[in-house]
Fold this sequence. Notes:
By secondary structure, chain A is an alpha/beta fold. Chain A has 5 helices and 8 strands; from the N terminus they run βαβαβαβαββββα.
Amino acid sequence: MNSKHNTAHNTALPDAEILIDQLVKKIRAESDKRFALVGIHTGGVWLAERLHQMLNISYPLGTLSISFYRDDFDKIGLHAQVKPTDIPFAVDGAHILLVDDVLQTGRTIRAAINALFDYGRPASISLAVLVDRGDRELPICAQYIGTELNLPKERTIVLDRGDGHFSLGLEKKNDIESVEEGRRE
Amino acid sequence: MIHRNPQLDKNRALQHLLTTEGLPASILVQILDTAESFVGVTEREVKKVPLLRGKSIFNLFFEPSTRTRTTFEIAAKRLSADVINLNVGASSQTKGETLLDTVDNLSAMYADMFVVRHAQSGAAHLIAKHVQPGVHVINAGDGRHAHPTQALLDMFTIRRYKHEFHNLRVAIIGDILHSRVARSQVHALTTLGVPEVRVIAPKTLLPSKVERLGVHVYHDMNSGLKDVDVLMMLRLQNERMQGAHLPSSEEYFKYYGLTPEKLSIAKSDAIVLHPGPMNRGVEIDSAVADGSQSVILPQVTFGIAVRMAVMSILAGHQV
């Protein structure tokens, strides 16, 4: 599956399951580090659960909610459903692999890094994402990428998990509010 | 004239927390759910999140209180807010004007939130009506009227141990007459769907027509505690009692004090709550307070998480 700069509209989106396989291959190829996985709610957690299983990670899986570290609290307040953060391993000295479904502006990752540093001092943090759609607003990049996609600005790409099977879909962004919600919790 | 709940804005979002009365279940549950996440924060190494960084929270305590003020201060600081404590001694002649002048002065210093405790019922409401949009008020106890954050942390505690509200028998025991906590608890319990709320107290410590709140009244612990799942103890308010409501605190303990024997009348897995501070040997026996069914210390921990939740929800309110 050609993954370089596809302009995807609807059915032209790549198969998420194939992307996940590719992502796992890339991580395995470079894993001199013993990674501890931390998934970012909600899509990143689903993805991290799958990666945790496929990569046979020995550390228990961490889940992270960035609600308390977002930079837009004054604009949109607190999300009604705050998912819990659970980091069941020592962050001090760990090589953490942050996992999220979509990377765009980089603000979610900035928040996640700040959150992780409140738990301790990691030896390193790397980032794995299924889809990098560009439009960075901060100097953030992913070390492991499933695919790069060029998407229309008014569309949000979402990762769906139905019966354990992953798929990608596009949704319409209406206004500022849904732009923020499109940035998954 | 449409009588709107001053706590809710026109979109029914919470903009002040003044009383549990009249708040929809969805708002109460929102606070409890948000508090769940904050429990995690208080349990880790770095107990702070940057959510309210740069916000100024003023504790306006017109009634002395170290513990409640301290928990609000801890909650605000764990949200990275700046906290200013004002212990304004309440003169018996405190007029509405003076109160509002104080608030105006502080507002001119760009206060974002006021946490108010006052000896007069309605003080927090008065302040809430007076402040600019975007400034939020939390009632930390007004007269005998309300103490919503205490009731909320009690609800959180009950939910933690009992999981559901709709199948519980809850008994509130003690000085209901002088208790703003009890009133807030009753409203919260009934809104959250507790089917049977009981009050157990001597007649002299019950407000007249208390049944109007939808509670079942008992004057006797032996009948009142039967099949109860949750016991909510109230402190005997010595400082509030004027005139003889009771012969003595020993007499009170004999009939209404919670001893292990009386506790055994309730369900074997019943939990015991107390807002604190406890009068050991008056309303509660040490054996119960320190026993396995007591959740009094967890209440304190949860109280911080609940107050963090309230402050966050209010601070995130969109004008």
